[in-house]
């Protein structure tokens, strides 16, 4: 399927490239909070993307509030309450609340060893899973003409038209982190959350002969120690 270039600057996409140091230095103590991170190690990076679902709950109660206010105002002025209008407010509020409590898991899953990425679909749709190398990423801004939101990293759906926003509010930072992590031939990204897995990951890459990176990069990704880096250079040549 040919995917139309719709998102990103000038209709393009972010290259799979490690071109900067990453500031997303995940701390070990942060991975114990499932509200944000489900799993962070040398094989999987799983981030909870359901935090935004709180919006549905708030919108639901907002419609309930609007319903109650409408009834109070209409009755105080001795006017009939529109059954159609109040029913509409009630139904919309219910739908938002129901979705908040019944929505499926919304997770960003980076499978480092198998090179696959999984990210959420809309509403109750099945998540998308694909090779990371085939994942097209850009940035998106909602309500550009009215009240622009912070640019978000946007992953294009296979249909070539819609997309899912993931991670935080720094597009290049988030994408650089993802590319770095998903390049299993490079050391793990910075952050104490990965420290206990660095030696294991180093020994794996050493046993494989330190193959060259899967994705190009203009930023050096050294090993944790100078001796390890020297060993990689001698065996792998990079």
Describe the protein:
The protein is α+β, with helices and mostly antiparallel strands and 238 residues long. It has 2 domains: 9-50 and 104-203, no CATH class; 54-102. The chain is built from 5 helices and 8 strands. The chain has helices at residues 54-76, 83-102, 171-182, 198-207, 226-236; strands at 37-40, 44-48, 107-111, 116-119, 128-131, 137-140, 152-156, 163-166. Strand 3 and strand 4 form a beta hairpin. Helix 1 (54-76) runs antiparallel to helix 2 (83-102). The longest helix is centred in the first third of the chain and has 23 residues, at 54-76. The protein is elongated, with a radius of gyration of 23 Å.
What share of the residues does DSSP label as strand, in percent? Answer: 5-15%
Query: Shape, please?
Result: elongated
What's the mean pLDDT score?
Answer: 87
Q: From the alpha-carbon coordinates, what is the Rg to the nearest angstrom?
A: 23 Å
Count of helical regions: 5
- Tell me roughly what share of residues is in helical segments: 25-40%
State the strand order across the main sheet: 1-2-3-4-5
Termini separation = 36 Å
Strand tally, please? 8
Order of helical and strand elements = EEHHEEEEEEHHH
Structural class: alpha+beta
List the uncertain runs.
Answer: 1-10
Count of distinct structural domains? 2
The major pleated sheet works out as:
5 strands, antiparallel
């Amino acid at each position: 399927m040919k995917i139309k270039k719709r998102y990103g600057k000038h209709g393009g996409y972010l290259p799979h490239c490690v071109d900067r140091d990453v500031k997303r230095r995940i701390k070990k103590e942060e991975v114990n909070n499932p509200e944000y991170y489900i799993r962070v190690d040398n094989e999987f990076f799983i981030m909870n993307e359901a935090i935004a679902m709180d919006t549905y709950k708030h919108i639901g109660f907002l419609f309930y509030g609007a319903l109650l206010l409408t009834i109070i105002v209409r009755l105080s002025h001795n006017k009939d309450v529109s059954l159609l209008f109040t029913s509409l407010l009630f139904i919309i509020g219910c739908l938002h609340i129901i979705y908040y409590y019944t929505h499926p898991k919304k997770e960003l899953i980076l499978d480092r060893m198998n090179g696959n990425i999984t990210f959420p679909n809309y509403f109750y749709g099945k998540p998308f899973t694909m090779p990371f190398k085939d994942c097209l990423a850009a940035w998106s801004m909602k309500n550009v003409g009215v009240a622009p939101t912070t640019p978000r990293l946007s992953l294009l759906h296979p249909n070539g038209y819609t997309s899912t926003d993931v991670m935080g509010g720094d597009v290049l930072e988030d994408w650089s982190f993802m590319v770095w992590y998903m390049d299993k031939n490079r050391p793990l990204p910075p952050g104490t959350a990965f420290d206990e897995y660095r030696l294991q990951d180093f020994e794996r890459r050493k046993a494989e002969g330190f193959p060259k990176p899967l994705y190009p990069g203009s930023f050096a990704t050294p090993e944790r120690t100078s001796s390890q880096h020297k060993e990689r250079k001698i065996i792998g040549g990079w």
